[in-house]
Amino acid sequence: MKAIKYIGLVIFLIGLTIFTATIFTGSFSLSAAELDEFIQSKGYQSELIKEELSKAVVTNEPLDIFEFSSRVKIAFDNSNHYYNTLITKYNKEKNWDEKGKQYQYLIYGKPHTLSYELAKKAGKGYVRDHAGLLWWLTFGLGIIGALLFILPNVILLGKPGIKNNGIYLESPTNRGWIAWLVLVYLVTFYLLLYFMADYVVNWTYILDPVSRALNGGEASQWFVYGFLYCVIMIVMGVRMYVKYRYNKYQMVRTTSVLFFQIVFAFLIPEIMVSLNAPGYDFKNAFPLDYDFFFEWNLKSLTESGSIGLFILVWGIILTIVIVPIMVYFFGKRWYCSWVCGCGGLAETLGDPYRQHSDKSLKAWKLERWLIHSVLVFSLVMSIVTVYCYLSGTSSFLGINSQWIKDTYSFLIGAWFAGVIGTGFYPIFGNRVWCRFGCPLAAYLGLVQRFKSRFRITTNGGQCISCGNCSTYCEQGIDVRAYAQKGENIVRASCVGCGICSAVCPRGVLKLENGPLEGRINPNDILLGNDVNLMDLVNQK
Amino acid sequence: MEHIVIIGNGISGVTLARHIRKNSEKKITIVSAETDYFFSRTALMYIYMGHMKYEHTQPYENWFWKKNQIELKKGFVEEIDTENKELIFSNKETLSYDKLVLAVGSKPNKFGWPGQDLEGVQGLYHKQDLENLEKHAPNNKVCKRAVIVGGGLIGIELAEMLHTRNIPVTFLVREKSFWNGVLPKGESEMINRHIVENHIDLRLGVNLKEIKEDENGHCRSIVIAETGEEIACDLVGLTAGVSPNIEFLKESEFETNRGILVNRFLETNVKDVYAIGDCAEQRKAIGNRRPIEAVWYTGRMMGETLAQTLCGNPLEYKPGHWFNSAKFFDIEYQTYGWVFSERHKKDSEIHFHWKHEDDYKCITVAYEKDSNKFLGINTFGIRMRHEIFDKWLTEERSVHHVMEHLADANFDPEFYKAHEREIVSKFNTENNTNIQPKKKSWKRIFAKA
């Protein structure tokens, strides 16, 4: 059994290595005709960019993606530099007419985006020509290897029960060098994905056939991310099934997050795109779905007929009505650990790292400041955006709409949710984003704290303060602090993953939806002592 | 300001200190020789198993003590000068007190076995024991076999710990069946099977004769008294219970028996000195309880009680209904009220026993023969609500009431399969009754006793 695991690990690493190595393969160049077509499709007015780009990428030289990217960037910079210089010059001369004319020639966006779009057309090579084979060598080996590593645990873990043996004795789960290596890999992955997508254009070739089958178009970097996300969640979901196979709550919950990720976040949007409708994730509620009220989205929805209108209404009702009502009845867990995509990844890929969340009081204070600030930030941004959309202005309350959107997307959307949120799993735990940053979680948390039937019940005086619950709480809640006082746990940040209850050796914790009365019991109702003493202690 | 000094930073001493602080501004000092800060002794096993690190077993962050003005002093008390109200430490430092509380806990029992003090022979109680275990049994290369002597709760925990590092374990149990002085037969036998299933070499009904030494003063093997069999081993775990850690009081004026004798106010025979937790021995046992209760929960309760007394509200120690919990490898155990083993139960105590076919779950309900009064329940593999049973015991409910409302008591996680119907149907068959189990009711669960 151990041997199978190690073989699996080797196969997985081979798959991962090939996947990573594909980045460095292929050659990139365009014909003059292809470039013309591209420039026309983009509607660039600048003559210069055409000239610069054809110098850069219309070539017989075998350029790798990095060389290709840097040449595109130079072309981009040269063109913009030329027109910017003219703008400055005319500005000095106070020649407003000429100055105004120059703006149409500027290329907006980021050089890596332009480079990605060009590269997607320009790539040639083994990976693109043998996408099917490469799929097997990367995704295929990765999946098979991982499953070979995971499945023997059905036998190796022994009898049903919590088996956290060795978690703090082994490098990957005890912040050892393997954990740091994983962190570096994940962070690099996110940086490439968000900011240098052209470098990973080869990955999109591997998934072109899959993408064409699903939505008729070629794969983008976001398709790669979505597909990879689903694959990782399924494989690590299998790990959850094996690890918690005796725990029905975990089995049902894992099935739920997998279902919502695969069907709602991945398949339905892809199918909608293939039907020429806007691709929409029906479970992704604002303000987690922070660009819901961005002009481009509102425009796209209002121009998409009845389906667009439906999405617009649904999105608003989801946030204002459905979300709080569901939290009232079931706690925020219905979303955060049963439905949400971010939560889904945290509960599958992130499960081996859940023990790393900081349990200190300081961390809790930081959490409350940060997460509520992000909530306010997202609301202010949306108000500004919607006002500007409706009124046709570019700023509101002195806040520039484009600036605040860009700032939020960059800081919160990309860095916080992606690079830090997932990249830092192996060191800071699997819920960094959900705990410190997610504005939806902040909103759900407020409802959960003040008006919900959900609580974690403490079983009388049975707690022995062992600390397993606090250690394995991914949200950094010091569960024990409540349990050892006989108090129920009612906390805004609890996502109801149920692991505290699973790891408790004395059966002290139970997630429940019950009447509001008696939900929060701040007295030290420690059972065992005689009634008079209890009255006394509780008088405080 | 009155200075209260507590010797021992375990659950009793720390609970006491916290509750004194809640009720007063008195000066509090906690003295310990074991660790700087309070940790959960019950969690030591999880450190060895790799579930947690030592710092995770500390229920309070290190700033907590200063913030609550509880002074911590590390040191070993050698002598108590009750005349001058002064503690004398092993380094001859002194500390004076106005009131002194002895919460010094226990130490593992050793019954004079030859070789009991050899290297590699140890109990599992102190943090230092854990460090020794890492030294003598870090893996199955260094420790090719371990022998555990004594079939109680700590013994089975030690077996589980060693098992997680794939160290072969021989488990010597004096009784004919595991813990059958406490557990009724059906349960005890189920645990026997569970131990064996976890590849522990369980030897029932045997005693240790001696521990043999190798050339380095380390244990080499043990000999079983009954059979004379010699078993080679690199670690011997002595887990035949604990007794009060009161060696340092032997020559003093304190009245002691096995523990420090206290009255119901937890006062010792010396003025202004109290004793709580594992080391305290009631002059007269309370109800069905033992005079010395070395249990986490009772230690905590004594701390809560004494805090009231020391803060000017004299209160007797009056523990409520008995409860306890443990875990045997993967099987959780909870008990509420009294369920005695065959060895100790009265004839009037009737047991109803139900066991699930998977052999991991069972319950035993004890009730009085003629009145049908519910006396207590042992539950294995099914979690049950403490509050509900506490209420039923206070209300002196009948066993029929318990059966009828068993669903109210279930505390298993959501979606778990419920067994109430099966249990009640077995009860009906055995007792010619026709009890219909009721659905869970929040109203009943929240109703106060």
With helices defined by DSSP (H or I, 4 residues minimum), what is the helix count of chain A? Answer: 26
Largest inter-chain contact set: A-B, 59 and 62 residues
How far apart are the termini of chain A?
A: 57 Å
Helical residues, percent of chain A: 55-70%
Global structural class of chain A = mainly alpha
**Largest sheet descriptor of chain B:** 5 strands, parallel
Assembly annotation: heterodimer
Look at the structure and give the CATH class of the largest domain in chain B. Answer: Alpha Beta
Q: Report the end-to-end length of chain B measured between terminal Cα atoms.
A: 41 Å
Write the CATH homologous superfamily of the largest domain in chain B. Answer: FAD/NAD(P)-binding domain
Indicate the proportion of strand residues of chain A: under 5%
Alpha carbon gyration radius of chain B:
24 Å
Average pLDDT of chain B works out at: 96
The overall strand count of chain A is 6
Q: What would you note in describing this structure?
A:
The complex is a heterodimer of chains A (540) and B (449). Chain A contains 26 helices and six strands. Among the domains of chain A are: 27-123; 454-538, Alpha-Beta Plaits (2-Layer Sandwich). Chain A has helices spanning 2-21, 32-42, 47-57, 65-92, 96-102, 111-122, 126-129, 131-150, 153-156, 177-195, 201-215, 221-243, 248-274, 295-302, 305-330, 333-336, 341-348, 361-391, 401-420, 425-428, 432-437, 439-450, 468-471, 479-483, 499-503, 531-538, and strands spanning 27-28, 123-124, 395-396, 399-400, 454-458, 509-513. In chain A, helix 12 (221-243) packs across helix 17. By secondary structure, chain A is mainly alpha-helical. Chain A is globular. The model of chain A has no long low-confidence stretch (mean pLDDT 92). Helices cover 63% and strands 3% of the residues of chain A. In chain A, the strands form three sheets. A two-stranded antiparallel sheet of chain A has the order 1-2. In chain A, strands 3-4 form a two-stranded antiparallel ribbon. A two-stranded antiparallel sheet of chain A has the order 5-6. Chain B is of the alpha/beta class and 449 residues long. Chain B folds into three domains: 3-107 and 243-310, FAD/NAD(P)-binding domain; 121-240, 3-Layer(bba) Sandwich (FAD/NAD(P)-binding domain); 323-446, FAD/NAD-linked reductase, C-terminal dimerisation domain (Enolase-like, domain 1). Chain B has twelve helices and 25 strands. Chain B has helices spanning 11-23, 44-48, 63-67, 127-136, 153-164, 185-197, 296-310, 386-394, 399-404, 406-409, 420-431, 442-446, and strands spanning 3-7, 27-32, 70-74, 77-81, 86-89, 94-96, 99-102, 106-108, 121-122, 146-149, 169-173, 201-204, 208-213, 219-224, 230-232, 235-238, 242-244, 260-262, 273-275, 280-282, 323-328, 331-337, 349-355, 362-368, 374-380. Chain B has a five-stranded parallel sheet with strand order 3-2-1-7-19. In chain B, helix 1 (11-23) runs parallel beside helix 7 (296-310). The two termini of chain B are 41 Å apart. The interface between A and B is large, with 59 and 62 residues.
